[in-house]
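Supplementary Note 2. Why include the ligand at all?

Several targets in our set were suspected to adopt different conformations when bound, so apo predictions alone were not considered sufficient. For every target with a known small-molecule partner we therefore ran a joint prediction. The input for nicotinamide-adenine-dinucleotide is given below.
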Amino acid sequence: MNIAFVGLGIMGGPMAANLVRAGHTVVGYDVSDERLDALVGAGGKAAESVAEAVAQADTAITMLPDSPQVEEVVFGPDGLLEHGRRGLLHIDMSTVRPETARRVAQAAAVKGIRALDAPVSGGERGAVDGTLSVMVGGDPGDFEDARPVLVVLGTTIVHVGPAGAGQTVKAANQLVVGGIYGLVAEAIVLLEASGVDPEAGLDVLAGGLAGSRVLDLKRHSMIRRRFAPGFRIDLHHKDMGIVIAAAREAGVALPLTGVVAQLIAAARAQGYGSLDHSALLKVVERINR
Ligand code: NAD
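The joint prediction is reproduced in token form.
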């Protein structure tokens, strides 16, 4: 397949390389020359614009930081809707607002372009290994057409509903992950303040009803105060903004989510934006000092 890939960062770079390895022709575009050089090194081709990347594409994947970049790449004069062929399948794998996904899908339909929102979970490791979880919103037929591409990138690939539904599921994912980090941080602070060994305490928690992937993967590094990213506080802060906006749009109140969003905002304000999101522990510690 001829695949355009726009946004070759921490996630997009290895994802595009995996598509090259699977035998697809990948034409990439990124505002960073360094990122483009890395794609060429992996066997892909570099385009000088979004227009050039999508011109011959059957499928276009975007993996960009946030809604404004997706809107620029999709709606801009140099963008995907202006220069993509009729029938092009656009898969936006960035984490953006559900509303952005719906607007993209509607505008794409007018141009005869098919659009899916397909955000991912699984981090850089999942991107490198091709083991991402992918939550897809959009037309079921388009989802089936996207499947051969998505199976190269992920292992859990689920169609969750119409346009925007993938982003809503990702928002739910981010609120749960943020909340669990906050509570694990509070458990560590409680155990240590009570003179109980946190390693022993959390080992027991991990084996019971309180068990979670966060406890499995991060309890040891959190107790040792190792916060190299991983998934940065800055990105989780962006995602909590998406969660709050989605809740507002849906007309629901999510009180715990509000607290978690403020804790993550505090982590950022305290200068921990480039640390892993497990650094929420530093915020809970600071409240208690
Ligand atoms: P990143 O900042 O490493 O990569 C984004 C890339 O987009 C950069 O290379 C940047 O130069 C490029 N870019 C920005 N604006 C552009 C434009 N207008 N045109 C072309 N290229 C442009 O970010 P990332 O970590 O790869 O994350 C990408 C998306 O995936 C985000 O929405 C993030 O929330 C989501 N995500 C990230 C992770 C993770 O662990 N990093 C996990 C799941 C989901």
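The first strand starts at residue 2 and ends at 6. The two ends are 57 Å apart (CA to CA). Comparable summaries for the other entries are listed in the accompanying table.
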